[in-house]
Automatic annotation (TrEMBL):
Entry protein name: GIY-YIG domain-containing protein
Residues spanning the membrane: none
UniProt organism field: Candidatus Magasanikbacteria bacterium RIFCSPHIGHO2_02_FULL_50_9b
Domain GIY-YIG, first and last residues per copy: 1-76
UniProt family annotation: Belongs to the UPF0213 family.
Length: 84
């Protein structure tokens, strides 16, 4: 199972990624050097969106699409997910 996730960084920006272990990856972003270089300088980060996928390919395709969205479109995506 693959998890696509969006993090809100301390400076208000968003970071999107995929992982097979969401709890481990979130800890890496917040506490360890293994987190992405982008989030390392913008700690703490907060998980604001997640979606599960059966295949890595599907997760990567959706990650690419989300990364193409504008900031406003990402905010709407997150808002729709939290409203459910």
């Amino acid at each position: 199972m693959y998890h696509l996730y969006i993090l809100r960084c301390s400076d208000g920006t968003f970071y999107t990624g995929i992982t097979t272990d969401l709890a481990r990856r979130l800890a890496e972003h917040n506490f360890f050097k293994r987190g992405a270089k982008y989030t390392h300088a913008r700690r703490p980060v907060q998980l604001v969106y997640t979606k599960k996928f059966r295949t890595k390919s599907a997760a990567l395709k959706t990650e690419f699409k989300i990364k193409q969205l504008t900031r406003e479109e990402k905010i709407l995506l997150i808002a729709r997910a939290t409203a459910c």
